[in-house]
Design brief:
By secondary structure, this protein is an all-alpha fold. The chain has one domain (4-168, 225-311). The chain has 15 helices and no strands. It is globular and about 60 Å long. Residues 32-306 form the Fatty acid desaturase domain.
Length: 320
């Protein structure tokens, strides 16, 4: 812990450096697009863990310029996510009220919803996905205020931060991805079926200019974000969690078929539950000590690979 700042910055520099270098090699034709996406998705997963540690003030707490510089660069390389300065409020709220109706952070990534095609398709999408969720979420928050489970001021703040955290970078980045996929679909139909339907030339010019950003940053983050949201939304319990009972908030998720997703969120399912018990521990320390932590957690009733959560829409208990 004496070298925590240095270690954190080295991990930051390596992750940023490798992602930009991979982008350069792709741009000059040395690296295929699929390899670029896989490599950068992995290192953006590492940067997500660093951002999470920064939100908990684990690096450069007494040197705000460095602290905020790291947050800014990580956000620019992960623009599909919420503004980290807004996310900090939502994340600290998540720790205080994990698994409750007003746990905005987890509900924003589909926690508590029944599994189906809609949840699967919108799992990584914070813009359209949250448009589908916002009515039920805001209604539940209103009920929680009425029932005395949440202060009105806190409710107002988390709703505003959840919305304004998407403006402008997150929304703009999603729009670029939407246009990218739609453009490729239209080109496919035009080539295969001579449909003649295509975007205007000026949109294609803009998309050509955006191509490096799309391949180097956005597509890897789409893979990373889908993987993270799949893991985090199913290791957190929702809806019937006893307030403040950390034993009911999370599980350890290590089952073999989650491995492809775990790779792109730095094995979040293996270690995030540890974080709920020891909040001020850096992500790499959690990994180093995970087997010792698992032993203690198992002895005290923390669940491991509770796959019933998929059937129960992430409830801790079976429905009665």
């Amino acid at each position: 812990m004496r070298y925590q700042n240095t270690i954190g910055f080295i991990i930051f520099a390596i992750s940023v450096g490798v992602s930009l270098l991979s982008g350069y090699f792709w741009y000059v034709g040395v690296l295929p697009a699929w390899a670029l996406i896989v490599i950068n998705a992995f290192f953006y997963g590492v940067l997500h863990e660093l951002e999470h540690d920064l939100i908990h003030d684990m690096y450069f707490k007494t040197k705000p310029i460095v602290h905020h510089f790291m947050l800014l660069i990580i956000w620019l390389l992960r623009p599909l996510t919420l503004n980290p300065w807004f996310r900090k409020t939502l994340h600290l709220h998540h720790h205080r009220f994990s698994g409750t109706l007003h746990d905005v952070e987890e509900r924003g990534v589909s926690n508590g919803e029944k599994w189906g095609l809609k949840r699967l398709m919108l799992l990584a999408d914070l813009v359209v996905g949250n448009l589908f969720r916002v009515h039920s979420l805001f209604s539940d928050i209103k009920k929680e205020v009425k029932n005395g489970n949440l202060k009105f001021e806190t409710a107002k703040k988390i709703k505003l931060y959840g919305v304004f955290g998407l403006i402008p970078l997150t929304i703009l980045s999603h729009v670029v991805l939407y246009v990218f996929f739609l453009d490729n679909i239209l080109d496919f139909f035009s080539t295969q079926f001579h449909s003649g339907i295509a975007f205007p030339s000026w949109i294609k010019d803009v998309m050509n200019w955006c191509n490096p950003i799309t391949y180097i940053v956005l597509l890897p983050n789409l893979l990373r974000q889908f993987s993270l949201h799949f893991i985090t939304s199913n290791l957190h319990y929702f809806g019937d969690v006893e307030k403040g009972n950390v034993l009911e908030q999370t599980q350890i998720l290590t089952v073999w078929w989650t491995y492809p997703f775990q790779v792109f969120c730095f094995f979040f399912g293996w270690t995030h539950a540890i974080h709920h018990f020891v909040v001020n521990e850096s992500f790499y320390v959690r990994h180093l000590a995970r087997k010792h932590a698992w032993k203690v957690m198992r002895e005290n009733g923390v669940r491991f690979n509770d796959l019933g959560t998929f059937r129960r829409a992430n409830r801790f208990n079976e429905a009665h």
